[in-house]
């Protein structure tokens, strides 16, 4: 199957190049890169659990080949992405990290897995249409890069910036491929802690919206999304950045309104999520305080495997998104470039969720959860390994959920080493 896809991609690229012999931009503006991603994942469960740990180590290779556009009012192009994941360490009792596929028969992690993505693209003025393999990064759908390989989707994605200050986006998706899979499947809803029926499937996810820079310091956003027969969602956002004293102040507002769509095959969806962050940056220091309220009869829905655009984003053990949950956090970032060490960044964060409502079998109402998070990252600035990025993350997560809930008390460590070669 993979060889067939490669052949089709090569034929398409050859035909397109032959048909546009005068289209210098197609070749001249092309780009090629190879990213190496080494990922160690260790989630050590505490307390009562049938699984003591999820621990694996893997190496990823991500090849990106992007053409330019043919010349003329309407330009055509083609992008190819090849991804390969290789197991370095795993065992049957430690699988399930999301780094590697788990084989159904043996219950062991695959030795390797791969995927080829093909994307055709058309550009007119400042409007571009991508068809094929797409990876949206929008408030209503963020294709997850949080494991070894990316989550991808099949469909079309239209973006336009023809109106100054306004970025419009719309699209139609029919299939998704999870981070630890090579098989495209129908689209499903995330269902941790028994929130929804995670087996409900849809072959139609539609989205439309945009971002408008009202001023140089204020950007407003609106998006609408619909997962056919499962849920629909509206999003409003606002980001305001301005000088305050010797530093810079930032506010980030996020509001989601969600309910079931059509037959509601995944169960009742009724949620309103309101979140707000306040941040202040001074020199190498950045302090962020924020909170969010989730209300309604259900948790906020989002696509399975994707990254929800929440105030709690970048938490690694939970998304703090249960029904009626109240969330707050404090985060401190320090950029060591301020003291002469460019490329080194440290993060410390405390997150707390209260009043969470789970099904009775998982603990019922009034549940709480906490995550303490530390991160240190460094990008080599010079020498033969310039550009190598190292990232170390550690989190301690605790909750008052029942022992059979999806999220359980754990200590988690993630180590990443990434490097991207620019081929041309």
UniProtKB/TrEMBL annotation:
Q: What is this protein called?
A: OprD family porin
Keywords from the named record: Signal, Transport
Q: Which residues form the signal peptide?
A: 1-23
Alphabetized InterPro entries for the sequence: OM_porin_bac (IPR005318), Porin_dom_sf (IPR023614)
Q: State a GO cellular component annotated for this protein.
A: membrane
What's this protein's family per the entry?
Answer: Belongs to the outer membrane porin (Opr) (TC 1.B.25) family.
This protein's source sits in the domain of life called: Bacteria
Q: What is the lineage of its organism?
A: Bacteria, Pseudomonadati, Pseudomonadota, Gammaproteobacteria, Pseudomonadales
What are the protein's GO molecular function terms? Answer: porin activity
């Amino acid at each position: 199957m993979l060889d067939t896809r490669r052949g089709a991609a090569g034929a398409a690229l050859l035909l397109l190049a032959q048909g546009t012999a005068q289209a210098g931009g197609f070749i001249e503006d092309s780009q090629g890169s190879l990213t190496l991603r080494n990922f160690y994942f260790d989630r050590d469960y505490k307390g009562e659990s049938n699984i003591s740990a999820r621990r694996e180590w893997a190496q990823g290779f991500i090849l990106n080949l992007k053409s330019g556009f043919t010349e003329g009012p309407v330009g055509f192009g083609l992008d190819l992405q090849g991804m390969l994941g290789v197991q370095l360490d795993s065992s049957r009792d430690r699988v399930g990290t999301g780094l590697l596929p788990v084989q159904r028969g043996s219950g062991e992690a695959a030795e390797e897995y791969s995927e080829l993505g093909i994307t055709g693209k058309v550009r007119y003025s400042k409007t571009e249409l991508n068809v094929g393999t797409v990876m949206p990064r929008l408030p209503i759908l963020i294709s997850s890069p949080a494991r070894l390989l990316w989550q991808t989707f099949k469909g079309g994605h239209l973006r336009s910036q023809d109106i100054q200050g306004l970025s419009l986006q719309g699209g139609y998706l029919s299939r998704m491929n999870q981070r630890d899979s090579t098989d495209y499947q129908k689209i499903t809803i995330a269902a941790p802690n028994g929130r929804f029926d995670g087996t409900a499937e849809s072959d139609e996810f539609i989205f439309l919206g945009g971002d408008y820079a009202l001023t140089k310091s204020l950007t407003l956003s609106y998006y609408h999304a619909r997962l056919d027969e499962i849920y629909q969602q509206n999003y409003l956002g606002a980001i305001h950045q301005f000088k305050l004293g010797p530093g810079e102040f930032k506010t980030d507002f996020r509001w989601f309104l969600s309910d079931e769509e059509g037959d509601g095959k995944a169960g009742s969806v009724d949620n309103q999520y309101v979140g707000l962050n306040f941040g202040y940056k001074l020199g190498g220091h950045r302090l962020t305080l924020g909170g969010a309220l989730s209300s309604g009869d259900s948790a906020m829905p989002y696509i399975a495997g994707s990254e929800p655009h929440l105030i709690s984003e970048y938490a690694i053990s939970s998304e703090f998104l249960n029904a009626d949950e109240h969330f707050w956090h404090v985060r401190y970032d320090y950029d060591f470039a301020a003291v002469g060490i460019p490329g080194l960044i440290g993060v410390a964060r405390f997150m707390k969720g209260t009043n969470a409502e789970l099904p009775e079998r998982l603990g019922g109402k009034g549940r709480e959860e906490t995550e303490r998070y530390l991160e240190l990252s460094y990008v080599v600035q010079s020498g033969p390994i310039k550009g190598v990025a190292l990232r170390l993350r550690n989190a301690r997560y605790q909750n008052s959920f029942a022992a059979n809930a999806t999220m359980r008390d754990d200590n988690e460590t993630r180590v990443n080493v990434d490097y991207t070669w620019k081929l041309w």
